[in-house]
Amino acid sequence: MPALTEAVGRFIAELSPNRIPDEAMQVARLGFIDCIGTMIAGRNEDAVGILRATLAPAPGPASLTFSAARATAPEAAWINGVAAHALDYDDVALRGHPSTVLVPAILAEAEALDASGLDMLVAYVAGYETWAELFRRDNGLLHKKGWHPTGLYGAVGAAAACAKLRRLDPAKAAMAVALGASQSAGLMANFGTMTKPFHAGRSAHAGIMAARLAANGFTAATDALEHPQGFLHAISPDGAEDRASESHLGETWALLTQGLGIKKYPTCYCTHRAIDGILDLMAAHPIRAEEVKQVTVKISDYFATVLRNHAPDTGLAAKFSIEFAMASGIVARRVGLRELTDDFVRREDIQALMRRVRTEITTIYDPELPGAALADQVTVETTSGARFAGEAVARATGHPTRPLAETQIYDKFADCLDAGNTDIPAAALFARLKGLEGIAARELARM
Fold this sequence. Notes:
Blueprint: H1 4-14, H2 22-41, H3 46-55, E1 62-63, E2 70-71, H4 73-85, H5 99-113, H6 117-135, H7 142-145, H8 149-165, H9 170-181, H10 195-215, H11 231-235, H12 254-257, H13 272-284, E3 292-300, H14 301-306, H15 315-318, H16 322-331, H17 342-345, H18 348-354, E4 357-362, E5 365-366, E6 369-373, E7 377-382, E8 387-389, H19 406-419, H20 426-434, H21 441-445
Parallel strand pairs: 3-4
Antiparallel strand pairs: 1-2, 3-7, 5-6, 7-8
Helix pairs in contact: 1-8, 1-9, 2-4, 2-5, 2-6, 2-19, 3-4, 4-5, 4-10, 5-6, 5-8, 5-10, 6-8, 8-9, 8-10, 9-10, 13-16, 16-18
């Protein structure tokens, strides 16, 4: 059997639509829908504007954030990836954000190649499954080491997706993956700043460049993933990575077993179970903010490490604050795009309530959700001495086991397009994306 890097290259080259289960293609389609919505929503964020002005990309075949502006594909993927992740509203899986890397890379390169929608979906499957193959080989919690998994796995996944788009043979596809592995990066210390979405955009750019270089004969190690000084060992928090077991790519499908979590709230996913808990508790017991003596949130130590901003004063920082999530849930009875603004975060009542939130830490993890507690739970104590304990939440709304209804997915999509101030009719674009396999990349972008 070929070693891992070569096996991944073979999987990419041999992947064809008739081998992919229909259900897996449906998940891939959902990834495009959700990511394009969040890309449009985030396109006016400062991070996107600064990057675009700094790159000053030359005109090219790829569209920028579904606008009339054009750029070369690598730069378009970079800018679009930052836009898609800027609001932290994009989907989650595999301990990261796969679509926010894969979709911008695929869209940009597909426009350059005049690829079909079916080509794009197959490329997504190639990228997601490659990401999942690396993810399953190490149970270590990358965040605890300071790594942002989206930046690490994303460059390899995007390289796999773009290698598929370019129809590279097994050897060159393996080269692309190895090149992607050497461009993996992303530090958790930069969460809550513009650099977090930069990780996603940079990985999308890296994937396009890796596949293009490999197509033109650029070389890399044929064992870059599994070598003792290769990708898996380099990023492993505990040095317990699996570099030797046989790959089952194309036999089992992570898109079916792992799926995608569609975010209901535009905050770090580590807040979502607790947000579900506080909103349900407020619905049952409409406590006013001034009546709250203390809010206690029971979460894992891993989640607490990720949610590092305890007194945020910007919308960006608040995305990684359990204190803000609870305060917003109590004061606004929601945690949405209009709450994730600097003005709302700095409100006196929000700042005061954040100081009354404490965390209770557990190290008992859910075996199916590495790093997560068995459940998150919120308790509110009032100034009158009453105590209200919310239901324990084991899976956030939008998790593959608690999926959003299609109407909820559409409502989020429409809200995202409205937030991005686009003239594109949400219903028309949503319908096109639902039938993505039947249209070409350039036709889609012309909307």
